[in-house]
């Protein structure tokens, strides 16, 4: 699998990997293992990456990293789109959300974006993608995902911060785009 390190805010490490021969699960585990091992100065063979046990029906499990059966104190988030995967790793008290899109979306995806984006000029593909990926990253960071309608997410005018009005949490937004992939990270560092 080919992968590249993405430029991220301090305390967060992310990689983009792609390989159509590997499943989503294989790609995200391999990337997570690579990041965790590098971050902690371990050998990749000593890191085990697995999914947490579901807490209830409909619960979207996250990846966890272990060494010698002990869970490592890191948060792992991932997102997949076709044959590409992005994995981000941070300290456990950092809130993270990711979105990954092709820079050239198909007509079906464009239709969904336009229906929920509420932009004045939906013909500007660059602005539409920037807006949509930030909205999706905020929904992911919030943890409720699709249970929050996309048009409930608010973004400031420079698209640097996002929030959902029913919660008092604001997320910083970082553009991690690379090659033909539009990648957005929503994150919130713990209060100092």
Report what the structure shows.
This protein has helices at residues 24-40, 107-117, 125-142, and strands at 2-6, 12-18, 48-51, 63-67, 70-71, 75-81, 84-90, 95-102, 154-155, 161-163, 170-175, 181-188. With 192 residues, it is an alpha+beta fold. Strand 1 (2-6) and strand 2 (12-18) form a beta hairpin. The radius of gyration is 17 Å and the shape is globular. The mean pLDDT is 91. The termini are far apart. The strands form 3 sheets. The protein has a 5-stranded antiparallel beta sheet, covered by helices on one side. It has a 4-stranded antiparallel beta sheet with strand order 1-2-7-6, with helices on one face. A 3-stranded antiparallel beta sheet has the order 3-4-5, covered by helices on one side.
Unreliable stretches covering 5 or more consecutive residues: none
Adjacency order of strands in the biggest sheet? 8-12-11-10-9
Quick check: average pLDDT?
Answer: 91
Largest sheet report: 5 strands, antiparallel
User: Count of DSSP helices?
Assistant: 3
Nearest-angstrom radius of gyration?
Answer: 17 Å
- Name the beta content range: 25-35%
Secondary-structure-based class equals: alpha+beta
Give the distance, in angstroms, between the N- and C-terminal Cα atoms.
38 Å
**Number of strand segments:** 12
Fraction of helical residues:
10-25%
| SSE pattern, N- to C-terminal | EEHEEEEEEHHEEEE
Question: What global shape is seen?
Answer: globular
